[in-house]
Amino acid sequence: MEANIQDWFKAFYATSDDESAHAKYTSFFTPDAKLIMGDRTAKGQAEIFELRKRMWTEVSSRKHTYRYYSSTAFTDTYLLEGEVTYTFKAGGDNSINWVAKADFEGEGTARKLKFYQVFLNVGSK
User: Which CATH number applies to 5-121: 3.40.50.300, 3.10.450.50, 3.40.50.2000, 1.10.569.10?
Assistant: First the structure.
């Protein structure tokens, strides 16, 4: 993993946008991490792996843009906002705004997500 948080997020979202990187994606999480993606929840790397595979069943590509925010009071927690653009296997594309909370464990190259929750604004254009 990347030591610098900016590089960490860059690597994480590049991996998130890579359809073939299911195993690599789960490596960004602790073994017992909790992931909440909209109305879907996964606990632990095995469930996160399966949830990620399901997220790609109808999508041929996706691209995240994001900004992150930190606090000196909560040094292991970041809030993020962004947009993800999907291209669908059946044709067409769609962009959705999202916000997320990321709680980390470890530092530097040992940094992993222990909790990651994404709120999707499915009504956005």
Answer: 3.10.450.50
